[in-house]
Design brief:
The chain contains 16 helices and no strands. The radius of gyration is 21 Å and the shape is globular. The protein has helices at about 5-20, 25-35, 35-60, 65-85, 90-120, 125-155, 155-175, 190-195, 200-220, 225-230, 235-260, 265-285, 290-305, 305-315, 320-350, 355-394. Helix 4 (about 65-85) runs antiparallel to helix 7 (about 155-175), helix 5 crosses helix 15 (about 320-350) and helix 9 (about 200-220) crosses helix 15. By secondary structure, it is mainly α.
Amino acid sequence: MPFAVYMLGLAVFAQATSEFMLSGLVPDIAADLGVSIPQAGFLTSAFAIGMVVGGPLLAILTLRWPRRTALVAFLVAFAAAHVVGALTDDYGVLLATRIVGALANAGFWAVAAGAAVSMVEPGAKARAMSVVLGGVTLACVAGVPGGAVLGQLWGWRSAFWAVAGLSVAGLVAVLASIPAGRPDAPATGLRAELRALVGPQLLTAYAMNALVQGATFCTFTYLAPLLTEVSGYGDGWVPAMLVLFGLGAFVGITVGGRIADARPYPVLLAGMSALTLGWAVLALSAGGAVAVFALVFVQGMLAFGIAPALTSRTFYLAGGAPTLAGGFLTAAFNVGNTAGPWFGGLTIDAGLGFRAPVWTSALMMAVALGTLGLAAVLRRREERRAETPATAAV
């Protein structure tokens, strides 16, 4: 695996830490800036919305840029946004920095994903994506808890300074490892990339990514109240359980990246089926502390274990449009990140209890399995169409 791919994973670690760290900083931000908890919480929603919009938009705007130029520009903007955020006393300015940071993050993701898969052999796309996505899992294991600790020791602004510092480290790594030009990927035009993105199989790939991501974060977002109100864990156990989920995710993405390229459909079918069953079992057994402890690790492993197969499938299908494919993939992920917690919150507001988001995750995975079935049908149909001319010629 090229060293540059690991450096992209390092930069993703900094950005993913920023995306998720506010979950432990919201009360301090609200108190410091004199706003309500919901207003402080909207900073997270604004980041997700910026990611959805920014992925495709910035992929289009930077389509003809050299990859290193685009990656450096996005990292500089991301770091600058966090410096301004750490310095401001104005909620509106902080909100604006979150939007700018999200746009920069989305643009970086779109370009980095295409860069990673272009630097490896054709049959190693899933492994490359597992390295880049590994930055997200490391953020769950170390970055997010680390941000919470910094917030407790030195205030929420210290977490923003830490992300800015990590972003500068990622910037140096990108400058040192990513080639200045794009010799490995001819600069395709916008129309050519858009034509490559209209296939029904790509639409099912985006839908599956959004559904799986939504199912994962539907439960992950409300894991704390599930643990304390249903499973009987004390508040002190919540950070440890979040780290446990992150450890499972790291194991899953490492293993999944090594096997997904060879047998993507069996990996997706087995992994998505097990994930669906796991959410249902977690909902049923949420009252048992031991069962929940095991399932938190297993579900993290399964959810991120199929991620390399899901993401790399997009790039296999969109071989002529790597940059825009990365942009739309980023948008799909964040549609799931936004919709999953929203659906889970609706079930809690409806009085269905803290098990309800887990059942919602199981339902979303069932729909994802149906989408996988549709993708298989479309694939067989395209294969038959490809064989028809050869048969006619004989």
